[in-house]
Amino acid sequence: MKRHLRILGPLLLLFLSGQPKGYAEESCGLRHFGGDSYVCVCNSTFCDELPIITPVRAGIYLAFQSTLNGHRFAVSEGSFTSWEGEKAGKESADEVDVTYTVGPAAGQQLILGFGGALTDAAAINILSLSQANQRSLLSSYFSPSGLEYNMMRIPMAGCDFSTHIYSYDEVEGDFELQHFNLTSEDLNMKIPLIHRIQRMTKTPLKILASPWSAPGWMKTNKAMSGGGKLIGQAGDRYHKSWAQYFVKFVQHYQVHNISIWGLTAQNEPIDGFIPLFPFQSMGFSPTSQRDFISTDLGPALSNAGLRKVKLIIMDDQRFLLPKWADTVLADNATSRYVDGIGVHWYFNYITPASVLSKTRQRHPDKFLLSTEACEGSMPWQTKVVLGDWSRAEAYATDIMENLLNGVGGWIDWNLALDTQGGPNWASNFVDSPIIVNAKADEFYKQPMFYALGHFSKFISAGSYMVQGESVLTPHVMTILTLGLASHPAKSLLICTAERPDKGLALVVLNKSSTTLHLRIVDGRRVRGSFVAQIAPRSISSFIWW
């Protein structure tokens, strides 16, 4: 496929000087949708690639910035001022609005990675494109010249982002699951796409599977949608059979040379208690999930030789924390089977991110993982908004608040949707970082896509979060006063991580309408600092070794 411009890596970047070069203007295929709305367009002959991050010499930093006005990964480089020069006051403190000092050492918060969900809808949209565009879309997410995703979530059977309701065993009373089989959605769409993705990634793909509902014949309402619970109670034949359903799923994917890294015990278990819930759901309370895991699911996975598969509880809204985790994990018989706690981002506005830190502190041996997020999900929201920068900021805010409060990774919802925000059999349309226009054989990279890249390409799997301290001048504090809510202000968020290659990655989100001059101080390694200009309404990533 023809490439009009290919950024090969930081060796090229070191020759750049002066004002940041507009990556989008050069190589992104920028398309304007009015106002401050821009997408990057990929078609069968062109798709932009992101820089491949490799170490550069000590004392040099690389900077990448995306902005409201259309810059995408605009790149610059610079050097640290020596520690002695800084202490001597050779740089004017009046030019600095914020000083951020990198902490002395990495903590214990391990980064599992970043990713998105390969739903039926995502697969349908990807496969609707030409072969060249399919390759570009998958590469945009998973290759070293893309977002470098290392995680993927897949539904166990159907969810609302399917074209119809289905399970893997529709034969009523088949408690031995003799009729369990994967469907065409798995065999003809998701599994072939996963194989293609696995050939692109530089690290093993962590695949997380989640069930939306047991087959209808196992449930109190006799249907996969509309709420309902498993019939009976933990330890009975319904619960034993449902636990074996998980085992069968993992084993059937293994036959196709795909290893399942993790399982959530149930997608959004509280949905099953909502009368006439509009799509697939199944109810569990903290106590019933606890009992199901200790009595049925945990032993079933262990007895099948699948103990290494990560088991994640809750997989629901953070307003359920810390009570949900406390209830499930207080039982040692359950806790020994559980590896992590899954959280979704919906309704975060009613619960502070501090509940994540509190949960992490109470259960330090369990990881926290953000397992689903999307824009356009609320009834009052427009579903797909092409080029909306505010949605990129919402993603970046949530990722940042998660990382600053003990969460070890972030998985987006649908990898790709159509221009309506589907397909979705329940008409529950939403937005996505990539929108596919199959009729034109092109797809659009939304600002959300690049927001994700500012984290996934820099705070890579195996990194550890590093604490830092921000000091704001009174002038900037006044500007940001209305947004003061988190670290250090709602309008300005900063986080740092130490990568497996020993690089330090720092991400800055500036949601204010003010250009900020940020001094970044690294006193433990480089022993110096540099001052960076942070554009208004921007996301910036810095990296140095």
From TrEMBL:
<dbReference type="GO" id="GO:0010605">
    <property type="term" value="P:negative regulation of macromolecule metabolic process"/>
</dbReference>
<dbReference type="GO" id="GO:0016241">
    <property type="term" value="P:regulation of macroautophagy"/>
</dbReference>
<dbReference type="GO" id="GO:0005102">
    <property type="term" value="F:signaling receptor binding"/>
</dbReference>
<keyword id="KW-0732">Signal</keyword>
<keyword id="KW-0443">Lipid metabolism</keyword>
<dbReference type="Pfam" id="PF02055">
    <property type="entry name" value="Glyco_hydro_30"/>
</dbReference>
<feature type="domain" description="Glycosyl hydrolase family 30 TIM-barrel">
    <location>
        <begin position="111"/>
        <end position="459"/>
    </location>
</feature>
<keyword id="KW-0378">Hydrolase</keyword>
<dbReference type="InterPro" id="IPR033452">
    <property type="entry name" value="GH30_C"/>
</dbReference>
<comment type="pathway">
    <text>Sphingolipid metabolism.</text>
</comment>
<dbReference type="GO" id="GO:0006914">
    <property type="term" value="P:autophagy"/>
</dbReference>
<dbReference type="GO" id="GO:0008202">
    <property type="term" value="P:steroid metabolic process"/>
</dbReference>
<dbReference type="GO" id="GO:0005774">
    <property type="term" value="C:vacuolar membrane"/>
</dbReference>
<dbReference type="InterPro" id="IPR017853">
    <property type="entry name" value="GH"/>
</dbReference>
<dbReference type="GO" id="GO:0030163">
    <property type="term" value="P:protein catabolic process"/>
</dbReference>
<dbReference type="GO" id="GO:0004348">
    <property type="term" value="F:glucosylceramidase activity"/>
</dbReference>
<comment type="pathway">
    <text>Lipid metabolism; sphingolipid metabolism.</text>
</comment>
<dbReference type="InterPro" id="IPR013780">
    <property type="entry name" value="Glyco_hydro_b"/>
</dbReference>
<dbReference type="GO" id="GO:0006066">
    <property type="term" value="P:alcohol metabolic process"/>
</dbReference>
<comment type="similarity">
    <text>Belongs to the glycosyl hydrolase 30 family.</text>
</comment>
<feature type="signal peptide">
    <location>
        <begin position="1"/>
        <end position="24"/>
    </location>
</feature>
<dbReference type="GO" id="GO:0016758">
    <property type="term" value="F:hexosyltransferase activity"/>
</dbReference>
<dbReference type="GO" id="GO:0007040">
    <property type="term" value="P:lysosome organization"/>
</dbReference>
<dbReference type="GO" id="GO:0051246">
    <property type="term" value="P:regulation of protein metabolic process"/>
</dbReference>
<dbReference type="GO" id="GO:0006680">
    <property type="term" value="P:glucosylceramide catabolic process"/>
</dbReference>
<keyword id="KW-0746">Sphingolipid metabolism</keyword>
<dbReference type="InterPro" id="IPR001139">
    <property type="entry name" value="Glyco_hydro_30"/>
</dbReference>
<dbReference type="GO" id="GO:0042391">
    <property type="term" value="P:regulation of membrane potential"/>
</dbReference>
<dbReference type="GO" id="GO:0005764">
    <property type="term" value="C:lysosome"/>
</dbReference>
<protein>
    <recommendedName>
        <fullName>Glucosylceramidase</fullName>
        <ecNumber>3.2.1.45</ecNumber>
    </recommendedName>
</protein>
<dbReference type="InterPro" id="IPR033453">
    <property type="entry name" value="Glyco_hydro_30_TIM-barrel"/>
</dbReference>
<feature type="domain" description="Glycosyl hydrolase family 30 beta sandwich">
    <location>
        <begin position="490"/>
        <end position="542"/>
    </location>
</feature>
<dbReference type="Pfam" id="PF17189">
    <property type="entry name" value="Glyco_hydro_30C"/>
</dbReference>
<keyword id="KW-0326">Glycosidase</keyword>
<dbReference type="GO" id="GO:0032006">
    <property type="term" value="P:regulation of TOR signaling"/>
</dbReference>
